[in-house]
């Protein structure tokens, strides 16, 4: 059913020039060739040619990779490195060679697989965070819980009081004329942990004359599973979303999470060999837009208000490297009056979140995060803006650990804030008049 | 390699610094050179200069080869291991030890990345000009070993013009210092120039003292299009004849322009014969004057179009065409063979035309771009190494290209080095006496031939008595890796 052979054209396109080495976060930790894109492609080649079995070290290297795809941005030969590593992971997963497979399957099949299950788990976590954690703290239970578990628990951002899909109706109409009909992906993480960002996104879309459709049948986009080799679960989820969004005739499907947007843009490719489904999938991919991308395309309304804030921007890998979107979020941020925008050194360097990498490989992830936090602190910014929930949580965690009083926000949040403030000042002006 | 020897290596550098897993061996079997690979016996990471000295002494005692390696971006196979060799991995030696703003020097470890050095010295208003194409990852040690060039070669020279001193370990293990911060120094033979460009065969560099210059105050970038490579070549000659030395004077031929346009959609005209990217730098008044003169020369030579950048961003945009040249060519076919045949600059048009003629004769695609100002061309063959028949034709074509370059008084390699890839061509450029001269130096310094054996030339008596690299079983398993 699934061909485990990795297409040789993908592999042979690499001319092993080494230009990927300076941008690879893992190579820059070990300074060993096998932890670099060039080295990993060579290892995959030897596996495919039958010269190397699926050794423990090979498997480790495939999962040590963050799949941040920074290498693809600098690759002169246009090698699709992400595809190569993801294909190798599918092979490892299918052949049952992945040691963490049981845990991953559990997570993929039971946590992400349906919206209601995901929310069910989120509710448990919320109950724990709100009620149990303070209790446990009071009773000194923390001292007996293993340290590593605690660190991972700390990684989880607080679950929102209300999930966004419970607040938002299926169809929302703007106040004025509706110029665009857009779908909106609530996502899984975004829905339960950053439900406020979802609401900000919808409000920004409404402000910009969009009629917003939020199909109730939508589920997790499937990217996390696909990146870890569980392509079947990913496809099942993708199918549900394609059906859900094909219900309406839309001008765009807006996504505010970089990872989800990147994966939905690949739906077409995912169903390449599925005659029945291909066209629909391709259509969904074509319509998918990151919220920053979409707002710039429709020439978003500029809010008329002064925000005296010093901010910086972290490029999410799946926005900068996979979707090649770097200018649009900056354009939105810089359009706000009074904003002091400082470029972040190594802004396109991965923060180490990488889906659930920070849970599966906590230690490695923290080494990578350290570099990011150091760069952020050097900017002296009050706010770090980023457009991906994984990065958002990871950077928040890193800043908390460093005792830094810096907020993490999504660009739409600050834009929405500006809209609200400009409305308020407008009303005040009207009042005084 | 004998477990006993591995153990002795471990005693020198510590267990964690000797890597022998098959995954590590595979990933140190190549550099950036197409179609060359061979497994090393081990990868050894030295911590100190003393470690390197001891490793080399052991190599002489136990008869194995040592291949120094930085980032492995060489294009002549210089860092590809041969049987019975270990990799000496220098990429963790990344310290910039000192930037002396009074004597204008930088003292660095060999693993410092070229572009990082650029950044650090430019922050202090200083300038280290050599900028090889792989500067974002190439190491200074590798640059010195290959005497690397780059885009700024015409005005500012190449790596050898910036090396003031070296701390080295000789093949037999002795440690010594050569040169220093003195501008003038004629004590004894000019030893550093013997070691620069020796491709890792005569010494391992452990510290490098580089000359810095003040950073040019301003610059101006221009892009000019021409009907033919001839008129572009004439323009180059005229610029030089007018006593202007641009910092950058680069050309792209028609094949390359078409590939760049296909890839980057810059709106370049695809019907032109060639384009020139020209950049002048220096004092603002001088830059203005020179840019004006160059414009005049371009127009006199019937440039079909001329674009002058008025801002930093515009300059970046103009440079994109040249910067994307390699990437654009590399995407066309799986295998990209980038060569560096070089001729005296007055012969550039003739050489470019001949290369196209040869490409047509062998029915292969060759894009041509490079440093028009210093005659260093990059004929780039686009092919597929799985197609053995076409690879044969590519080889024949390059043979003819090198022959023609030599006929014009050129060289087989302007900046990539001989390594493994061009050994047989070196014999065309030098007669027996010339190669024997090099062999004598090598034999005198490295009597057992332990340091980067087999590179540049063969010693007449090959050391075939060395132990076989892997067990019979392993050779069978990995035989495809051996070329």
Structure, explained:
The complex is a heterodimer of chains A (433) and B (483). Chain A is α/β, with parallel strands linked by helices. Chain A has three domains: 8-94, Alpha-helical ferredoxin (Fumarate Reductase Iron-sulfur Protein, Chain B, domain 2, Orthogonal Bundle), CATH 1.10.1060.10; 101-152 and 167-299, Glutathione S-transferase Yfyf (Class Pi), Chain A, domain 2; 310-420, Rossmann fold, CATH 3.40.50. Chain A is built from 24 helices and nine strands. In chain A, the strands form two sheets. A five-stranded mixed sheet of chain A has the order 1-3-2-4-5. In chain A, α3 (37-48) crosses α6 and α12 (195-207) crosses α24 (411-432). Chain A is globular. Chain B is built from 17 helices and 18 strands. The relative contact order of chain B is 0.13. Chain B is an alpha+beta fold. In chain B, β5 (96-100) and β6 (105-108) form a beta hairpin. In chain B, the strands form four sheets. A seven-stranded antiparallel sheet of chain B has the order 15-12-14-13-17-18-16, sandwiched between helices. A five-stranded antiparallel sheet of chain B has the order 5-6-10-8-9. In chain B, α1 runs antiparallel to α3 (49-62), α8 (229-241) packs antiparallel against α13 (348-361) and α9 crosses α12 (325-332). Among the domains of chain B are: 96-214, 2-Layer Sandwich (Uridine Diphospho-n-acetylenolpyruvylglucosamine Reductase, domain 3), CATH 3.30.465; 216-416, 3-Layer(aba) Sandwich (Vanillyl-alcohol Oxidase, Chain A, domain 3). At the A-B interface, α3 and α4 of A face α2 and α12 of B. Chain B: This is Glycolate oxidase. Chain B: Residues 36-215 form the FAD-binding PCMH-type domain. Chain B: It comes from Candidatus Chryseopegocella kryptomonas. Chain B: Pfam families: FAD-oxidase_C (PF02913), FAD_binding_4 (PF01565). Chain B: GO terms for molecular function: (S)-2-hydroxy-acid oxidase activity; FAD binding. Chain A: Component of a complex that catalyzes the oxidation of glycolate to glyoxylate.
